[in-house]
Amino acid sequence: MRLKLAPEKTNIDFFRFAPVTFGLSVVFMVLSVVFWLTFGLNFGIDFRGGTTIRTDSAQPVDVGAYRQAIEPLGLGDVSITEVFDPGFAADQHVSQIRIQAQEDTEAVTPEMVQAVERALKTVDPSITFPSIESVGPKVSAELVWAAVLAVVAGSAGIAVYIWLRFEWQYAIGSVAALIHDVLVTIGVFSLFQIKFDLTTVAALLTILGYSINDTVVVFDRLRENLVKFKTMPLRDVMNLSVNETLSRTLMTTTTTLIALISLLVLGGDVIRGFVFAITFGIVIGTYSSVYMAKNIVLYLGVDRGGPKKDGPSGTRFAEVDA
Amino acid sequence: MLYIPLWKRVMVLGVCVLAILYAAPNLFYDRVETHNDAVAAIEASGGVATPEQQAAAGLWPDWLPSNIVNLGLDLRGGAHLLAEVKVEDVHAARMDMLWPELRDALRVLRAEVGNIRRQPAPPGELRVAISRAEGMTVAVEAARKLAQPIISLTGMGQSDIEVAAQGDVLVVRLTDAERTAMDGRTIQQSLEIIRRRVDEVGTREPTIQRQGEDRILIQVPGIGSAAELKSLIGTTAKLTFHPVISRTSDPGADAGGNLLLPAADERDIYYVLERVPVVSGDELVDAQPSFDQNNRPAVSFRFDPTGARAFGDYTAANIGKPFAIVLDNEVISAPVIQSHIAGGSGIITGSFSVEESTELAVLLRAGALPAEMTFLEERTIGPELGQDSIDAGSLAALVGMVAVVLFMVASYGLFGVFASVALATNIALLFAVLSVIGATLTLPGIAGIVLTLGMAVDANVLIFERIREELRQAKSPARAIELGFEKALSAIVDANVTTFLVAVIMFMVGAGPVRGFAVTLGIGIITSVFSALFVTRLVVAAWVNLRRPKTITV
Fold this sequence. Notes:
CATH architecture of the largest domain in chain A: Up-down Bundle
CATH topology of the largest domain in chain A: Multidrug efflux transporter AcrB transmembrane fold
Oligomer: heterodimer
Subunit structure (chain A): Forms a complex with SecD. Part of the essential Sec protein translocation apparatus which comprises SecA, SecYEG and auxiliary proteins SecDF-YajC and YidC.
Shape of chain B: elongated
Radius of gyration of chain B: 34 Å
Function (chain A): Part of the Sec protein translocase complex. Interacts with the SecYEG preprotein conducting channel. SecDF uses the proton motive force (PMF) to complete protein translocation after the ATP-dependent function of SecA.
Number of domains of chain B: 3
CATH superfamily of the largest domain in chain A: Multidrug efflux transporter AcrB transmembrane domain
Pfam family, one (chain A): Sec_GG
Transmembrane segments (chain A): 20-45, 143-164, 170-192, 246-266, 273-293
Number of strands of chain A: 6
Domain Protein export membrane protein SecD/SecF C-terminal (chain A): 116-301
């Protein structure tokens, strides 16, 4: 008896609720932008400068006492959060303290870090500081640019490749799906105020790569079917292609999610935000390649060529013998 | 039929065996690391080994590969610093050097240009006011004669300074080409000196590299904190010896073009010194911690021949006059010259502790940094946190892998087992490649590996789903398998090329953790395509040829 995520032969009309799904996607995208603009993003120190100190103690974390100890130092905006993780020992209490970038200092001052350490030691003598990270405002501004550049360059690179290998309609469809995935992920990060730092950008890029992976598999099948069924309406060919690849889409998404959930639960709190972004993005990416990318290609139409045309050249890869 | 030529079978199997061989050392990480350190230590000491080193080297057989992945700072613990070199300092110093030359050149022409006076100017610029504006053309000409051709690969044929006249002010400025050449040299020199200082402390595999125009990235694993690292490399350690003009207690005293520097040990005491030093730390050949005649910690030093001559000549000519020893813009001491000091060695006294004198000796030996540095970014990661991350990451990877294998077997039966073999090969290959190219594994890198685990089976899934489809069309098992591989290929290639593209872009634009992730993701894509296309195919073909099944269920 085999485990089957999708029945042998499906015949789902993925366009039946096209206005609803497409509309929902657009609503989500708009909402994400609204969240982004109203709540903003909870930028980590990579992007806005400042210092984070991780504390570790056998005593329970007393956020109020920590705050009282640090307050007299006059460091401006200080946020203290307790960190929980199933991997911690019973008497391990971890917190994360974030201090804003100090005015008119380009460089990071060790004196400030030492002062904070001393202040906390008076509250809890057993406290240790497993990690201290500081980023100056100059670097953080550059990192923001590098991050934006990375996402834009990533999308552009993908668009060009799809355009070369398929056609421009596909490229637009894929990029629209990518923008959707990235925007909605940013929206969720903004809504729940999850820390957004350099690794989140890496996560966004991974989502790009994964989402396009799914989209390309559907497109590849579509291209093949367009050659096979020259007279079938485009909408039907698309439905056929998605149905044919549905089982694979679900299988791959499931295996990837299995691995990611394992990492999410067991991988420790340091990379949890990063793994969460990828996990969320992969679910969204699967959705968008089924419901988003295709719709746009359908709307734009595909040049199906005359009877002479031998289809796009992509399938020639099949001649490569393994 | 599913025929694979012998040479191809041998090749694929060979790659798999090599992969396992090269990945294996990572399973015995500590052992191999101790072995590698011992071997390096023995080599450094010219083949002579202590018994402990011999024992450590014996922990791992020499004939086995001993490459292991480097653990990044977030996994091993250590300190990370991003420093910006203040290249303007060097420009300013260069202009200070030019000033006496220009002054001498213009003094000769006093009749035409009148009195000259240096005016304040931004770094890299020298402004000189002359009292007779009509003599400006002569002054400009004299200044132009001081220009030197640039010695660099790109700046050939250009000169180092440009001279202009602004009313009665003569402006001498460094040319852009000279600035670029100088900045390049400054960074290069800083890199070299930082490397020497870090090496003196003797930690493992520090990363010291230039980043962008004027930045230096320093990563030192195993060091306690970034503050410690900073005190080691953040000190300029610029040592100079200046003639003393006067001593004052007024911090606002008018030094009139000379230097006004505070004393290091005495409060509210300032020295007025001649701007151009007699000798500088550049001319030192050795510095050692020692003690003075009162048994207080001190640093003894020795000059090279040029330094020794200049020092000897000066002391011979100025017996009875005070002489200032300046370290990083503070007067350490200002002894009176008692006698002619020949031979070029001396001693620096001051109120040092033994630790301070030892550190100062290290810094002087390694040489002064050509310019000051500011720190833009610093990170300290404790070794325990790193170990926790490794443990959590490996556990997650293991659980993830087992779950994926179970899921694949439940879905595809025997073919799921085949895919799992390919998956295991993939992991071995990934670690083998990471070890051989000496890549650095970071925490996001581990996440990249786990993600690859999930995605690696994608190619197999594509193939198996395709075989299922072909089987439904009542093809023979062998034919269906063959067509499955063939038709899935274009989807596999397209899907993976796009993801690979993203990994490449991440590597190019990303910094630090993003890069580590990009490396494992990118290599993971290549190895997963290899294992899905070649390894799975080999295993499936072997099975089909062995069993010749009449029907198969995928």
